[in-house]
Amino acid sequence: MASVVIIEDDSDHGPLMRERLERDGHVVHLVPGAAGAVAAIVAADADVVLLDVHLPYGSGLDICRELRATPATADLPIVIVSAYATAADLERGYSAGCTRYVKKPFALQFLANTVADVVGTP
């Protein structure tokens, strides 16, 4: 399956997301904030990143831009997972380079289906 890196500071959401994706056989790495996020993504050889926008020590949008600007991660699927989902928020996310935008709250099955879709797994 896929190597998934979740960048999420919420102590409830992050572990639930990790548990659900691990049940599908994914290898999941949970990073609790922006500090060290890009290094963790590279170290994990991530197939997909699930990225919150508002994080301690930085912005998920800045991480998204940095990943897009780096040749090794320029094509990496990035799914923004955020409670901020106005039209302007989505525009900022897609302008930063995200592949998909998932609004919180969401069904864990929907998230699992999104991951499967962006990494091309059944």
Automatic annotation (TrEMBL):
SMART domains in the record: REC
Domain Response regulatory: 3-119
GO terms (BP aspect): phosphorelay signal transduction system
PANTHER family the record matches: RESPONSE REGULATORY DOMAIN-CONTAINING PROTEIN, STRESS RESPONSE REGULATOR PROTEIN 1
Name used for this protein in its record: Response regulatory domain-containing protein
Keyword Phosphoprotein among UniProt keywords: yes
Keyword tags: Phosphoprotein
Modified residues (4-aspartylphosphate): 52
Domain of life: Bacteria
Protein species of origin: Dactylosporangium siamense
Gene3D superfamilies: 3.40.50.2300
InterPro entries for the chain: Bact_response_regulator, CheY-like_superfamily, Sig_transdc_resp-reg_receiver
